[in-house]
TrEMBL record:
It comes from Chryseobacterium ginsengisoli. Residues 176-647 form the LPS-assembly protein LptD central domain. InterPro entries: LptD (IPR050218), LptD_2 (IPR045659). It holds the Pfam family LptD_2. This is LPS assembly protein LptD. The lineage of its organism: Bacteria, Pseudomonadati, Bacteroidota, Flavobacteriia, Flavobacteriales. PANTHER family: LPS-ASSEMBLY PROTEIN (PTHR30189), LPS-ASSEMBLY PROTEIN LPTD (PTHR30189:SF1).
Length: 830
């Protein structure tokens, strides 16, 4: 390159470097009074001050901007004493925040707020100091959280409840994560303290802590009942882990899993595993008992598959589970009174073109009184749909032959009765019985003489079983010994029936204008004859004999105690009768538009009995009378039954047993039962008052509305209900001179003391023992954003009180659950 050539290249030393602006966007300001200090690079805004920067807007009484440090400071309006009377309003991305003081760094985008009030979904957070790290994370010191609508809308200066924590982190504006957190009710601290909490602000299912109830039980001490954690698992499952903790050492763990697939099926698994500790270790009253309960519910949607359905209702408990229950819900809902528990799993198969339904069932029934359980594993039923044996010639069936129908099917059963210790062990399988039974039922009917219906029927039973019995008297043991024989054996039986029935009507009219205008009596009499041969004859081989201790020949069935039943002994040629009655009357009524109304005296009144022409003794049967009626506009329901023995019973002096003689015509009462049920309510005794029209003055105390009369006394509805149930039963037979009597009265009701105070309870009084049976008293208080429930069982084996506080906000339906429920379980768990 020539020396005199011009070099037009710009060196790096001559490059112009522009200083980066501290603000990334335009900062807009306005105020009634503005002042700029150029030397300190400060801007001061007073009265109705406002700053807009990017997506944030600050409205305050005073704002200062430090351009050198990139800081903005805002303060709310003060009174003469320096107290903030109007907050700073900060709006960012459409979200409003209220604070007394606010500081924001435009470079780092971090902020610090004092006494910040932040509304999220249905709740509000108020913190002494809040630091914003970025748009997703807020850290708060000494903060409270509540969903009280009155406090959120500033109708009240104090929340009816709040959760208080020293440190809270708001993440993604979607959930609160806190350290130790405590619940306050009306500014009063409660013992409900959690080591941590995750509170979601989402309509989706989310994890959370389950709030327990607390109280005291006389046998196991103070408790927390239902403390746990909820965790959704994917789209179709959720899991709850609950625990019950008692101060005297008892504990219980309750896992529950729910599942659902829309339009297919739904169900849940649940279990109880625990240890019941009673008394003091080292003393005679000390006991330690393990308990368990396993339950499964499965329901198939009816639309899923109409030809194949599956359902399950499994509930297996330890024998003494309800006597040692650690879940207080079983006490409050009266499950502890259960004497039996049943479990069933069923699968049903139907066919499009075949008239057959196949049902497979496995069932397990527990009897807590005897400690024995009945297991059917499995049981299969094949039912063939009813069909006509002959075709109709004209298209309209008439006559006995064209109306002849056939019902038939097969039933296969595997059955064993066992105790809890033998379940699924060799002893159980040795006692297992297998039986197959086929039933064929023929029936037909026709009209005779226009007003009578004549019916014929026949039943044939065929049965096979794998076990029969032999009996003999053992003089060494002085008892009758029963031996079991293994091997296939069976029997067949049949019976026939013929009956005729009609309907008769009778009406008695009274003088027009009288209180009773008419009485109508409808009677349905029927008579029938039943015949079956004597299957106890030696030719059939179904019965054998043994000599008892007195040397008397005693017959018995070799199928006795079997799962397929036993044939009947003795010929039956019985003429039976049944007379059904329905009695109504018409009475004058001002409330009815027609001027009259119908009153049912007896909805049904049935009389039945029979006479066996083939019987060697006591040919007349027990006569039974059953009645059902209702009174007071069908409110009072009455059900009665009466059993009469037509033969005289003579009781031997000094002995409790009696002898049934052949002396006919005495008709002694052998059984009598009457049940009454009457639901009472405030609506029955008076119409609902329209307080809005009756009283001009209306007032509100927090969330309760009242109407005031001229003397300023408050008025409001106090609806109440009271269900009264009464039962009386009398039983007597030739086996015992002393009759058995049962008599009890049950009450179940509720009353609202105020629009938000409710009292409910139930009790039963045994009139024979003159003692109160199961009794429960409950109180409920609706407190705007939460509910307080208190339940108390003062008498009986379990004396317990239970106290529960539940938050009603929808956003806390999972975390801090108000109701112990999930997406698959709208009601309390089973």
């Amino acid at each position: 390159m020539p020396k005199n050539a011009v070099n037009d290249t710009i060196s790096k030393k001559d490059t112009i470097v522009l200083k980066k602006e501290s603000l990334e966007d335009v900062l807009q300001t306005k105020a009634d009074f503005q002042r700029r200090d150029f030397q300190k690079k400060m801007v001061y805004l007073n009265k109705n001050a406002q700053v807009k920067y990017q997506d944030m807007q600050i409205d305050a009484d005073y704002i200062s901007i430090d351009e050198q440090k990139n800081l903005m400071y805002a303060r709310g309006k003060q009174d003469s004493l320096g107290r903030i009377i109007e907050p700073v309003i900060t709006t960012q991305a459409g979200k409003k925040y209220e604070t007394t003081e606010f500081q924001y760094n435009t470079k780092t985008r971090q902020a610090i707020a004092f006494n910040a009030r932040t509304e999220e979904s249905e709740g509000v957070i108020v913190a002494n100091k809040t630091k914003k790290y970025n748009d997703s994370v807020f850290a708060m010191r000494h903060a409270i959280y509540t969903t009280d609508d009155y406090f959120i809308k500033k109708k009240d200066t104090a929340a009816d409840y709040h959760l208080r924590a020293s440190n809270i982190k708001l993440v993604n504006k979607a959930s609160i994560i806190s350290g130790p957190i405590q619940m306050y009710i009306e500014q009063v601290p409660t013992p409900l303290i959690m080591p941590f909490a995750i509170l979601p602000f989402s309509t989706k299912r989310s994890a959370g802590i389950l709030i327990p109830s607390f109280g005291e039980r006389q046998d196991v001490g103070f408790f927390l009942n239902g403390l746990g954690y909820y965790q959704p698992i994917g789209e179709h499952f959720d899991l709850k882990i609950l625990s019950d903790i008692y101060t005297k050492g008892s504990w219980n763990l309750r896992p529950e899993m729910n599942y659902i697939k829309k339009y297919r099926y739904s169900g849940n698994f649940s279990a109880d595993f625990g240890t019941m500790v009673r008394g003091i270790k080292g003393l005679d009253d000390y006991s330690k008992t393990g308990t368990y309960r396993i339950a499964w519910r499965h329901t198939q949607d009816t639309k899923a598959n109409p030809f194949l359905t599956f359902s399950a209702s499994v509930d297996v408990v330890s024998t003494k589970f309800y006597n040692n229950t650690l879940n207080n819900n079983y006490i409050l809902n009266q499950n502890v009174l259960n004497t039996q528990q049943n479990s069933t799993v069923t699968i049903t198969k139907r066919f499009l073109k075949l008239p057959v339904t196949i049902t497979g069932t496995t069932s397990y029934s527990q009897n807590f009184a005897t400690g024995l359980s009945d297991l059917r594993l499995p049981q299969m039923n094949v039912a063939i749909n009813q069909f006509y044996l002959f075709k109709s010639k004209t298209g309209v069936r008439s006559g006995l032959l064209e109306n002849l129908t056939v019902n038939t099917g097969f039933n296969l059963t595997n059955f064993v009765q066992t105790n809890e210790g033998e379940l699924f062990k060799k002893e159980m399988w040795d006692k297992m019985q297998t039986g197959l039974k086929n039933n064929i039922a023929l029936g037909t009917n026709t009209t005779v003489a226009k007003y009578f219906t004549f019916s014929l029927g026949a039943t044939i039973d065929n049965a096979l079983t794998t076990k029969t019995v032999d009996k003999f008297y053992d003089p060494l043991q002085n008892k009758v010994v029963t031996e079991t024989n293994k091997g296939v054996s069976g029997f067949s039986t049949f019976s026939t029936t013929a009956s005729i029935q009609t309907t008769l009507y009778g009406t008695q009219n009274f003088k027009k204008g009288s209180a009773i205008e008419a009485i109508r009596h409808m009677m349905t009499p029927s008579i029938g004859f039943t015949y079956s041969p004597d299957f106890g004859g030696s030719g059939y081989g179904y019965f054998k004999n043994y000599y008892d201790a007195n040397g008397a020949l005693t017959p018995y069935s070799i199928f006795e105690g079997g799962i397929i039943g036993s044939p009947t002994s003795g010929m039956t040629g019985a003429l039976g009768f049944n007379i059904g009655n329905n009695i109504e009357m018409k009475v004058k009524s001002k409330s009815d538009s027609t001027g009259v109304k119908k009153v049912k005296i007896f909805e049904s009144l049935n009389l039945s009995g029979s006479y066996n022409f083939a019987a060697k003794d006591h040919p007349f049967s027990i006569v039974t009378i059953n009645g059902q009626s209702s009174f007071f506009n069908n409110k009072l329901s009455v059900n009665t039954s009466l059993s009469l023995d037509p033969y005289k019973i003579i009781y031997i002096p000094g002995q409790d047993t009696g002898i049934r003689t052949e002396d006919f015509g005495h008709f002694s009462v052998q059984g009598f039962n009457v049940q009454l049920s009457y639901p009472l309510s405030s609506e029955i005794f008076g119409e609902k008052t329209d307080y809005g029209k009756k009283y001009k003055s209306k007032g509100e105390v927090r969330n309760e509305n009242y109407y005031f009369d001229d003397d300023n006394y408050a008025h409001f509805d106090q609806p109440w209900t009271l269900n009264v149930n009464a039962n009386y039963a009398y039983t007597r037979s030739s086996a015992s001179r002393t009759p058995t009597k049962l008599a009890s009265v049950g009450l179940d009701g509720s009353i609202k003391l105020t629009p938000y105070w409710n009292i409910n309870g139930s009790t039963h009084y045994d009139m024979v023992t003159r003692e109160l049976a199961y009794t429960r008293i409950g109180f409920a208080r609706d407190q705007r954003s939460f509910t307080i429930n208190f339940n108390w069982v003062p008498f009986g084996q379990y004396k317990v009180y239970d106290f529960f506080i539940g938050i009603k906000a929808n956003i806390l339906s999972d975390a801090l659950k108000y109701k112990d429920r999930s997406f698959t379980q709208p009601n309390a768990p089973f």
